[in-house]
Amino acid sequence: FNKHNMSNSKEVIIREVWAFNVDYEFSLIRQTIRQHHFISMDTEFPGVIHSSKIDRRCLQACDHYRYLKANVDELKLIQVGLTLSDGKGNLPDFGSNKSYIWEFNFCDFDVNRDPCNEDSIDMLRRQGINFERNLYHGVDSRRFAHLMFSSILVFNKSITWVTFSSAYDFGYLVKILTRMNLPNKLEDFLSIVEVLFGKSVYDMKHMMKFCNSLYGGLERVATTLNVGRAVGKSHQAASDSLLTWHAFNKMMKTYFKNDEAPKHAGVLFGLETAA
Fold first, then answer.
1. Cα separation, 194 vs 153, whole angstroms
2. First to last CA, the chain
């Protein structure tokens, strides 16, 4: 697992993806995926509406999954952010002097009709998400799923996925890609994640358990690691995916030797099962 050089100082541009340009944007991703086989991913969704009455730290992995399934089955995805990088930490530039990351906006969620957590919706509005624009101009998740399958982003063993507290992120992607509610058993869900996304899936939130002084959410962790947000705002999927990627690389350099990372692959925070 290489330690990447994050000295790339090109201006980063968020490529906003809507129904009208989704095919073109996936064609760009297809062009670059063989050279940029690290993908940092983040999603935005309407919060949670089912939660435990007891401290989440007292819950077992199967309990966490039961609440995850109840929420993901009932709620709809709002955004997916993808940051692609090569083995040296370079983002796609397509021969320009700018680097690019992607933000997919979905039309599935109707803020006036669909279940949601109102506090989460208010927060996402404050961060700049326009739910009306998403509804009328966003990507249909069925089209997104078709393009994911045809763009070798899934079933691709050469890709490494980097995430932060990503059980829900993968929950929504599994739901979209399978067009089904999540399986009843945690083990079946984890098997599907491995089939679709491979074994090289890293969740920073889980790995932080092995790092002294790292705790809290993405923003706090990035600050602790002295990593700044290169573009956009928090709780916007593309911006968070890039911050996750930069924070992950700093965490790897600071806390992990070259041969230590693979033992943490495939473990999602909150869904850790006994080996």
1. 13
2. 22
Quick one: tokens of 266? 């495939």
- Other beta carbons less than 10 A from residue 223's beta carbon: 13
User: Can you spell out the DSSP letters for 9-75?
Assistant: -SEEEEEEE-TTTHHHHHHHHHHHTTT--EEEEEEE----S---SS-GGG--HHHHHHHHHHHHHHS
> Does residue 268 contact residue 166 with C-beta atoms inside 8 Å?
yes
- How far is residue 175's CA from residue 189's CA, in Å, rounded to a whole number? 10
Residue 82 near residue 241, CB atoms below 8 Å:
yes
Rg (CA), the chain: 18
Whether residue 186 contacts residue 273, with contact meaning beta carbons closer than 8 Å, is answered with yes
Q: Residues in the chain with pLDDT < 50?
A: 7, 275
What pLDDT is attached to residue 53?
83
What integer pLDDT is reported at residue 1 of this predicted model? 58
- What pLDDT digit, counting tens, does each position of 104-157 carry? 999 999 999 999 999 999 999 999 999 999 999 999 999 999 999 999 999 999
Select from 91, 117, 77 the least CA-distant residue to 38: 91
What pLDDT does 274 receive? 61
Q: Report how far residue 261's alpha carbon sits from residue 1's, in angstroms, rounded to the nearest whole number.
A: 7
pTM beyond 0.85: the answer is yes
